Amino acid sequence: MNSASKIRRKVAQPSASDGVDSADKQEQLLLSSAICNNEDVGPFIRRAFASGKPDRLLLHLRHFARSKESEIEEVCKAHYQDFILAVDDLRSLLSDVDSLKSSLNRSNSTVQSVAVPLLDSLDGFLEARNISVNINLALRSVHSCIKLLELCSRANLHLSDNNFYMALKCVDAIEGEFLDKVPSLTMKRMLETKIPEVRSFIERKVSKEFGDWLVDIRMVSRNLGQLAIGQASAARQRDEDLRIKQRQAEEQSRLSLRDCVYALQEEEDNDVLGGGIEAGGSSESGVLGFDLTPLYKAYHIHQTLGLEDRFKQYYFENRKLQLTSDFQVSSMTPFLESHQTFFAQIAGFFIVEDRIMRSSGGLISKLDVENLWETAVSKMCYVLEDQFSRMQTANHLLLIKDYVSLLGVTLRRYGYPVDTLLDVLSKHRDKYHELLLSDCRKHIGEALAADKYEQMLMRKEYEYSMNVLSFQLQTSDFIPAFPYVAPFSSTVPDCCRIVRSFIEDSVSFMSYGGQLDFFDVVKKYLDRLLSEVLDGSLLKIINTSIHGVSQAMQVAANMAVFKRACDFFFCHAAQLSGIPPRMVERSRRQFPLNKAKDAAEEMLSGLLKTKTDSFMILIENVNWMADEPTQSGNEYVNEVIIYLETWVSTAQQILPAPVLRRVLQEVLCHISEKIVATLYSDAVKRFNVNAIMGLDVDIRLLDSFADNQGSLFSDDEASQLKSSLAEVRQMINLLLSNHPENFLNPVIRERSYNALDHRKVVMISEKLRDTPERLFSTFGTRGLKQNPKKKSLDVLIKRLKDAN
After folding, report:
1. Is the pLDDT of residue 788 over 70?
2. Cβ atoms within 10 Å, residue 725
3. CB neighbours (10 Å) of residue 226?
4. DSSP codes, 623-664
5. CA-CA distance, 712 to 288, in Å (whole number)?
6. Angle between helices 491-510 and 394-412 (to 10 degrees)
7. Quick check: helix, strand or coil at residue 147?
């Protein structure tokens, strides 16, 4: 090896005789420096090829390689000694390893000889442990199978008992705890097949029961609605009875202010439907007779099956279809006969839905129930609008309105808004009252046509109570003796009953309709009934059917009684409307039957005037040129007074004093005008003072007749009665006056002759002036001097003619 290295070192050394110039050395140094520094030698290669001297570059590279070989050789020589030392260490280590190996072999032999019995024991133990594990696994599998079979048996028992919830719990336990742990593949496949079948069977069974419940709940809802509305009606009747008792107590207190009147306040019965608004209450189902168990069972089962949302949708759709079916109105049955069933069905439906919403735990939401109610309200409003538009009988509208208002009261207690429904009723208020007015017009016409206009005879106290006390027509608080002859005819109580029925029907329609203060509406239609219907009917009967004085007198008496009845009508309307009577008394208006009253009095006075005219014809028998005045009155005035006294004796029993006074005043005024008209007429060409004095006696007899009626009237009324003869009295006073020219004095004329007409005074005075001269002279003498009275009369006549 040393000889070889030596030879290589000789090759690597450059010969001094190579004759390399300094340029080549410089290039060789640069190339060696670049290679040592790991630089790119590409520029050297390109330059060598560019100069066409690649061989020189190759020579330089070989020279660089030879210089490195010598360095490598020196490094190897430096590490050779270390290698020799390491080999020596390895050889000493190998001998130590051999001794260790022999020691390990001896130890292994010792351990093997000791551990063989132990290993045999361990193998036996492991085998026994595996057997034990297998036995335990088998026992656990047996226990699991036993529990599985018990659950299966229990599930079958629950299925046979229709206890589907517990059966599903068993199935869920089987599926969750045992299905993946069943050791038998056959049993596992059987369970995987039967579990869905069991669930499907339970779902079908529960759905069938729910379907049967849907069918049954419709009939139950109808009965429930009828019961609930009936209870609302009973509660309303109790309230009405209590208000009637309260009104009676108030009336007694008003009539007897010093006495304290106490009224017992009745306690209302507990509402049977009271539990209906409490969620979760169990009393309602028993009382109202409807069972929600099938529904709750079906909902719970579907929740357990994980089908809750699907069942909610199924329930809502079916109930919506049922509600739509309930909206159908049969065209074969009149709505008046079917409206109770129609509205009771809807009421029962929403009572049931309210209970389900509050107690089912989310089966149907409040929003869904509100949507169903809005649909129901719109449909009911449409049906009511349609049916009301066809009805032409007020009583039919009232019956349906009352039932709808009871429906509103019933469902409002369950939180349903019913204002829209009540607005439909209010909208038909005018039509109802128009129909009611038409019915009353017909009934009043029949009552007036059937009356004979004779005083009504009452033989029993109940007749008096029914015809007089019930309308507050009595003039005294004492019960009269029976038989009792009333001052009115049968028209009065008959018409009062019709008006009272109108008031009660009007209040009934306006009550419970959402409007609390409706007295003004009732009063408006009551005014129309009295002022248009009753007043018009009375006017018609007065103008067409009254022909005698007795009938006219009875009609006038009836009008006076109607005035008291009208006060009762408005107070009765106020009481029924909940308005204090004192408010009605403060706002009392004029008598609504004024036209009929005036026509009746005018008819009576007209017939009396006609009758007196038949006696006044006898004035033609008066001797206008009598030689001496009559002392007992002329024949005509005696006949008139006899007739008037006879008539007054009858009339005062039934006619009120003001009416009697007005009629007598009209008749006496007519007699006065008739006498003056006779003096003014062409039938009387002339008359003398004796005739005028005879007329003076006639007027004194009429004044005496008026004075005799003083017991019937007050002093003012008696003086008004006598003032009816003012014209004829003033005319006679003027003709008998010694100074008739005083008529020209405005003061005297206003005080003593204010009822006289200038033209009549002229014409009548001229007839007196045409009498012979002796009539104006003193008895037994004839003076050539003109009579002062005649002269005064001539002056009067001349002055009046000039003024005219």
Report:
1. no
2. 25
3. 17
4. -TT-SS--SS--HHHHHHHHHHHHHHHHHTTTS-HHHHHHHH
5. 70
6. 40
7. helix
Tokens at residue 107, please? 């130890």
For residue 375, give the DSSP letter.
H
Widest Cα–Cα separation across the chain: 230
Q: Could you tell me the end-to-end alpha-carbon distance of the chain, in angstroms, rounded to an integer?
A: 195
Closest among 4, 7, 9, 2 to 67, alpha carbons compared: 9
Structure tokens at 59: 């020579």
* Residue whose entry in the numeric block shows the structure tokens 């009369």: 793
Within 13 Å and on the Cβ side, how many CA atoms surround 322? 23
Residue 517 Cα distances to 522, 577, 641, 746, 766, angstroms: 10, 8, 57, 61, 72
Q: Judge contact between 484 and 460, C-beta under 8 A.
A: no
Q: What is the C-alpha radius of gyration for the chain, rounded to an integer number of angstroms?
A: 67
Contact 597, 539 (CB under 8 A): no
Residue 206 pLDDT class (50, 70, 90 cuts): confident
Place of tokens 């033209």: 759
178 within 8 A of 144, measured Cβ to Cβ: yes
Peptide bond into 629 cis (omega under 30): no
| pLDDT, tens digit (0-9, with 9 covering 90-100), for 142-163 | 887 787 778 787 878 877 777 7
Count the alpha carbons within 13 Å of 246 in the hemisphere toward its beta carbon: 13
Of the candidates 148, 141, 143, the residue with the CA atom closest to the CA atom of residue 173: 148
Residues whose CB falls within 8 Å of the CB of residue 541, separated by 6 or more in sequence, listed in order: 448, 449, 555
User: Nearest 5°: phi and psi at 725?
Assistant: -95, 15
DSSP, res 531: I
Going by their DSSP bridges, the two strands 484-485 and 457-458 should be labelled as: antiparallel
- Half-sphere exposure in the Cβ direction for 367 (13 Å, CA): 0
Could you write out the DSSP letters of every residue in 6-28? HHHHHHHSPPTTS---HHHHHHH
Tokens for 27, please give them. 């290039």
List the one residue out of 542, 554, 546, 568 whose CA is nearest residue 486.
554
Cα–Cα distance for residue pair 525/507, rounded to 1 Å: 11
- Look up residue 384 and give its amino acid: L
Please state the φ and ψ torsions of residue 457, each to the nearest 5 degrees.
-100, 130
Kindly list the distances between the CA atom of residue 198 and the CA atoms of 169, 172, 191, 195, 492, in Å, as whole numbers in the listed order. Answer: 12, 11, 10, 5, 83
CA dist., res. 639 & res. 707, Å (int):
18
Model pLDDT for residues 67-122, shown as the tens digit of each residue: 778 778 777 877 887 788 888 888 888 888 888 888 888 888 888 888 888 888 88
- The token pair at 19 is 């004759």
Sign of the Cα pseudo-torsion (251, 254, 256, 259, in order): positive
Q: Residue 458 belongs to what H/E stretch?
A: strand 457-458
- The number of beta carbons lying within 10 Å of the beta carbon of residue 183 is 13
Whole-number Å distance between alpha carbons of 597 and 555 = 9
CB 596 within 8 A of CB 539: yes
CA neighbours closer than 13 Å in the CB half-sphere of residue 386: 11
At residue 384, the pLDDT reads 86
3-state DSSP helix/strand/coil % of the chain, to nearest 5: 80, 0, 20
426/429 Cα distance (integer angstroms):
5
CB distance 291 to 285 below 8 Å: yes
Identify whether the C-beta of residue 637 lies closer than 8 Å to the C-beta of residue 696.
Answer: no
All residues at 6 or more sequence positions from 186 whose CB lies less than 8 Å from its CB, including other chains: none
Q: Burial, 622: exposed, middle or buried (Cβ in 10 Å; 0-12, 13-18, 19+)?
A: buried
Whether 555 contacts 546, CB under 8 Å: yes
Which of 494, 489, 491, 481 is CA-nearest to residue 457?
Answer: 489
- Measured between alpha carbons, how far is 385 from 374 in angstroms, rounded to an integer? 16
Exposed/middle/buried for residue 276 (C-beta within 10 Å: 0-12, 13-18, 19+): buried
**Does pLDDT of 228 surpass 80?**
yes
